[in-house]
Structures are given as C-alpha cells and as structure tokens.
Fold LRAT domain-containing protein.
Amino acid sequence: VAKMRNLVLVAVILQLALIEGKTENYEFGDIISFERSCPCTDMTYKHFAIYVGDTKLDGKKAGQDIFQRSVDLLITDLLHYIRKLYCIFEKLEDEHKSRSKINIERKDNYFDSVLKPGTKEEIIKRIKEKKGKCGVYNPINNNCEHVATYIRYGERFSLQNGTSFEKKFQEIDKARAAKKNMKAKLLEIKTEMECLICRHKKG
C-alpha cells in the first residue's frame, strides 16, 4: 500500500511539474492555443488566449494570468442562439480542466516570422481597449483568435490552422477575394452553424 501511495505521489508531482513547466515557458503577450474536440462530432477547433502572467493590469485579480474572449453559447434551435460574450482575465489552470476529449496546449505565435509583435506597452493598450468591449461574437469574423492576434500583432486573423475548420476558413477567404459575395455568405452561414453546434457545450 505504501509503495502504491508513493507511486501516486510521484505521478502527481510529475504532472504538476509539467503544468508548471509549461507556464514558465510563456512570456507576456504570447498567444496560447488550445486544440480541442467538439462535444458531439470528431471535428476539432482551437481556442486562443493571451498570456499576461503576473503583470499588474486594471481589473486583473491575483492568480489570473491569461486574457481571452470567453463565450458561452446556448442554442435554442439551429437558427437561434444566445451569446454571452466578454473579454476578460482568467486563470490558465482553468483551461486545463476542459471536458474536451483532447486539449492540446501550446505557444502559438504563428505570425512572428512575418509580423512584428507589439511592445509590452502596445499589448497592454490593446488589452485595455478590448477588455469588456470585444464586439458581437461571430465564429467566422470575430472570434477568440481574432482577439488574440489583434492584441499581439495589431491585426486581426483567424486561420484555425491544423483543425477541422482550416479548409472551411480558406474557402470563405477565397470566395471573398474573388468577390463571389453570395457564395462567401453561404459558406459563412454553413460554417457558422457547424461552429455553433461544435461549441454548444462549454469546452
């Protein structure tokens, strides 16, 4: 029994070390992505947040170390849903408690090679600008990835790289670029409903 307890204790310590180690690798302003699975399908998506660490910011409480757009969706039917939306400070450790079958967390500053990240002062200014004022949530045009990339780079992007929605977002962009407005709109509606169905449980 004592041996088993020791093994369990070692496992817990290792797990805590892994989580702690992850956090120590982040710097202020880093984008963190969480690849997750949808609750009722095999589709995957990414949630995004900005790491702020222990930097003192207006409205941030002790222990809160990320800034993100949080969305709770209540679907009444396929055409009607209620959006609760806010850009707030939260705890990274709470994102480790996702009920998703997969929850792959990583630093995801994917535009650093082509865009210059904002300075700490610029990032703080953008956080103040967005806190509580993210605008109306839309999974295609105004989602958590748009917020995270704007805060880090000053420009809004949503690519959903490596997820089930990557190609869908690319199709919409191509239709927009070709000025096929009706096709783009239909693709937006179809993809939006898939996103909403995917996210209808808080994940």
